[in-house]
Design a protein that fits this description.
The protein is of the alpha+beta class. It is built from 11 helices and 6 strands. About 25% of the residues are buried.
């Protein structure tokens, strides 16, 4: 998944001192946008609730079973008849280690959802930053086109104001009018893209209608660099998909340990007391122990199933690691190309070109530069400016993909270094 966003100062209710100061100044930083998007997201609190749900479930999975009590009364008859009263209490006790493993498996489920929460936060951050840049780039393109339109309006008025225009001058006026129509068509395309990307950004930001403030985003200069080996090490440590897969593998191993214990018998000690009278009186009490005998079911299929799950999750882990290595190599190459492209358009060069087109316009009015030469220079300057802006977007997207792959959350400072 770029722009000087004009979001809306009439409704700005950003929380925190930093957001408040940005609102007063009428400018929003990337950090402001990211914070607001994370605060507004419904998915993020939903995943946080699921993490809590799994943690509570893990605690419950390792809880003790409630004791069982029994109470009975009746008649006993032998040489005489008399009342009978009995009471018993039993307490199931799991085989040592079962409760701990069940709790740990539940905790790993919570940990996996925690990884997914980080992944979602990274995805929201990436989308907001990308959309912000795209919006700013579209605004800058619109400004360039508006400036061109004003220049060509002036030129058309200049050509149309001449008395007894020659065939050459009439042809020049028609060329300018055609160019104005094309510029107007380009403006419609740019305006459509601007509105579209603003709606996409506003989905995350949620500003109400009103004049938007300016977005303060760092310009990418292509002077940064990425150490491929260092970033590969980061990705192997922080990548969310790999981290989630490692959690699943750890859970599979604990599930096998639990499957081995499932065949072990659980204990159920009990205590009983009885009181009855049959002419005379008698009492009985004692303790007992009940446990299943693992003859018909030793959970052998469950153990084999757990072993195969470990093999499957481990192979998938290795696949994800190879995939990350390949993807990082591809992204690194594309990032380097995009970085070099940005460096072809330094600010000084763009400022020089823009000054040249202004100078050429003045010389055209003096008759020292012909129209075709001016049109050619105008096209070159506009194409160069648009290429420079598109190069910004391309570099941004590749760098954001690298950040996401490496699980990097602190995006704005790293962009500022690019």
């Amino acid at each position: 998944m770029h722009r000087l966003i004009v979001l809306m100062f009439a409704m700005m209710t950003l929380s925190g001192a930093r957001n408040a100061s940005a609102e007063v100044e009428g400018r929003l930083t990337l950090s402001d946008l990211i914070q607001r998007a994370l605060e507004r997201s419904e998915f993020i609190p939903s995943l946080r609730a699921r993490v809590d749900q799994d943690r509570f479930s893990a605690v419950q999975a390792g809880a003790w079973t409630n004791p069982t009590g029994g109470l009975s009364s009746g008649l006993v008859q032998e040489s005489g008849t008399g009342p009978l009263f009995e009471v018993s209490v039993s307490q199931p006790i799991f085989y040592p280690g079962k409760q701990r493993l069940r709790r740990e498996i539940g905790e790993l489920g919570a940990e996996e959802n925690g990884v997914r929460l980080v992944e979602l936060e990274l995805a929201v951050t990436r989308d907001v930053v990308r959309l912000a840049y795209e919006y700013v780039i579209a605004q800058r393109k619109r400004a360039i086109n508006e400036s061109r339109q004003k220049s060509f309006d002036v030129i058309r008025s200049y050509l149309g104001g001449r008395l007894f225009p020659s065939p050459q001058q009439q042809a020049e006026r028609r060329i300018v009018e055609a160019r104005l129509r094309n510029i107007a068509a380009d403006s419609l395309v740019i305006e459509g893209a601007l509105r579209s990307v603003f709606e996409s950004l506003n989905f995350y930001i949620g500003f109400e209608a009103g004049p938007p403030p300016e977005l303060d985003i760092p310009r990418l200069r292509g002077t940064g660099s990425v150490d491929r080996r260092l970033w590969l090490a980061r990705a192997m440590t922080r990548n969310t998909e790999l981290s989630a897969q490692r959690v699943r593998l750890a859970a599979a191993r604990k599930e096998k340990d639990l499957a081995l214990l499932e065949a072990k018998p659980d204990f159920e000690p009990n205590v009983f007391f009885g009181d009855g009278t049959r002419g005379g009186g008698e009492r009985e009490f004692g303790i007992g122990l009940a446990l299943p005998i693992p003859v018909l079911n030793r959970n052998l299929a469950g153990i084999r199933s757990a072993q195969r799950k470990i093999e499957a999750e481990d192979r998938l882990r290795r696949h994800v690691e190879r995939q990350i290595e390949a993807e990082l190599g591809q992204l690194w190459s594309e990032y380097e190309i995009a970085r070099q492209a940005v460096r072809l358009y330094p600010d000084s060069r763009l400022a020089e070109l823009n000054a040249q087109i202004k100078e050429a316009e003045g010389e055209f009015r003096k008759g020292r530069v012909d129209l075709l030469t001016f049109l050619e220079l105008d096209s070159e300057v506009v194409e160069t400016n648009f290429r420079a802006l598109d190069a910004q977007v391309a570099l941004l997207e590749k760098f954001l993909d690298l950040l996401f792959l490496a699980g990097e959350k602190d995006v704005p400072p790293q962009l500022a270094a690019q």
